[in-house]
């Protein structure tokens, strides 16, 4: 994840037309390799690399341990006002919390919010704990419950579905706390109210995405929301990749060993629908930003989505 993703603080979804950008890219001979299929050998290499993903992200967060890379995602509550307007003591599961840039924004947006945050990288969790721990509000620290989990291969812990409330695994604690129950809440059988996937799904192998979304669906309460933001097709960062970094259809491997996939709306729609979600919102966010060092305009494309678990599930 590059620094540009972390510095965005304003949300403008219509700075330019995505269809016009698509035409420009698809008619540019120098970019044609992005449109071509990949060899089976490259795809196999990318799939084999999947077992090293956690290690790559550990190294990434270790390199950026000084805190200079951190930028709180203050735009998040503008895009997802449901997080600030939710009922008291609502529960959020942030999947792929990274260094805590999303977690801090969520905690500050709603004083009673309870936030569970997971990541496949232990190093990321260390950074997130440090950043939340350094926050001015003691309340933020007490409502933040991090844990390690790779949701592309492993279901979320049973306590997230509030099995504690029904008597199962009642001794489970995080940081000395029972994370699913509190004196302020009623019995919380049913799971979490929100799952956030913010620049997380794109870091997974494509073939693991269906299982990952199924895990998100399972842990949500009926009527709960999946809040999604990720790389969109023909984003500037996609077009910067070199041919040798293209490892699959819209899949790329960065020089640091981390991966990135670039979504079109249909792919997101198909994946979430197959998992059981109902689409509430889905669109491209087309944002122009200026590189302060060289004055160049950068065309960023992200996919914004909101999806609901049906109340009858």
Automatic annotation (TrEMBL):
Highest taxon, organism lineage: Eukaryota
One Gene Ontology biological process: methylation
Top class in the EC scheme: transferase
One annotated GO molecular function: S-adenosylmethionine-dependent methyltransferase activity
Pfam families in alphabetical order: Methyltransf_23 (PF13489)
Sorted UniProt keywords: Methyltransferase, Transferase
InterPro entries assigned: METTL2/6/8-like, SAM-dependent_MTases_sf
EC number(s) from the headed UniProt entry: 2.1.1.-
Function recorded in the entry: S-adenosyl-L-methionine-dependent methyltransferase.
Record-stated family: Belongs to the methyltransferase superfamily. METL family.
Protein name per its UniProtKB record: tRNA N(3)-methylcytidine methyltransferase
């Amino acid at each position: 994840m590059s620094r540009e993703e972390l510095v965005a603080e304003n949300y403008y979804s219509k700075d330019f037309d995505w269809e016009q950008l698509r035409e420009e890219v698809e008619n540019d001979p120098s970019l044609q390799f992005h449109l071509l299929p990949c060899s089976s050998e490259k795809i196999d290499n990318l799939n084999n690399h999947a077992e090293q993903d956690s290690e790559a992200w550990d190294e990434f967060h270790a390199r950026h341990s000084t805190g200079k890379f951190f930028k709180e995602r203050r735009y998040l509550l503008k895009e997802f006002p449901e997080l600030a307007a939710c009922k008291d003591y609502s529960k959020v599961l942030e999947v792929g919390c990274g260094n805590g840039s999303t977690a801090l924004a969520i905690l500050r947006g709603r004083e009673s919010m309870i936030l569970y945050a997971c990541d496949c990288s232990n190093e990321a969790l260390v950074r997130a704990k440090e950043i939340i721990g350094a926050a001015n509000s003691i309340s933020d620290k007490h409502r933040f419950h991090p844990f390690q989990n790779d949701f592309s291969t492993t279901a979320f812990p049973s306590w997230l579905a509030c099995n504690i409330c029904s008597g199962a695994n009642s001794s489970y604690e995080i940081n000395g706390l029972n994370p699913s129950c509190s004196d302020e809440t009623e019995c919380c059988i049913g799971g979490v109210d929100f799952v956030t996937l913010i620049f997380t799904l794109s870091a997974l192998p494509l073939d693991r995405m269906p299982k990952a979304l199924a895990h998100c669906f399972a842990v949500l309460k009926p009527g709960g929301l999946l809040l999604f933001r990720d790389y969109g097709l023909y984003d500037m960062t996609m077009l910067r990749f070199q041919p040798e970094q293209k490892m699959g259809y819209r899949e790329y491997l960065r020089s640091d060993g981390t991966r990135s996939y670039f979504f079109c709306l249909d792919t997101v729609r198909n994946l979430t629908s197959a998992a059981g979600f109902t689409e509430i919102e889905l669109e491209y966010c087309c944002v122009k930003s200026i590189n302060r060092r060289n004055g160049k305009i950068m065309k960023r494309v992200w996919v914004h989505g909101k999806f609901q678990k049906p109340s009858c599930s």
